[in-house]
Design goal:
Layout: E1 9-11, E2 18-20, E3 24-29, E4 35-38, E5 46-51, H1 54-63, H2 65-70, H3 76-87
Antiparallel strand pairs: 1-2, 3-4, 3-5
Length: 88
């Protein structure tokens, strides 16, 4: 009998919930200090996860949580890209 595979869990930087990777969206800051939404989940750089929930994205935008997490100025287009991914 096969052992069940371990499901990778990640923490949402807004809600602090431990969730499966498929329930989250990854945002990355690379060495060039570019911040972008990582559709593949495999891009190089420092990653942060947000729950796939419009309310969570809006809270992150309102409190500027991504900028605080990466300690860098974040363009509003990042939040729009996250919303577009959810509404997709």
């Amino acid at each position: 009998m096969k052992k069940p595979r371990k499901v990778p869990l990640r923490k949402c930087i807004v809600t602090n919930e431990q969730l499966e990777k498929q329930d989250l969206m990854r945002i990355v800051k690379n060495k060039q200090n570019e911040v972008f939404v990582d559709e593949t989940g495999k891009a190089h750089g420092r990653g942060a996860y947000l729950k796939r929930d419009l309310k969570v994205i809006e809270k992150a935008e309102k409190k500027n949580i991504i900028a605080k997490h990466f300690r860098i100025e974040v363009d509003q287009s990042i939040y729009q890209a996250l919303k577009d991914t959810i509404n997709g």
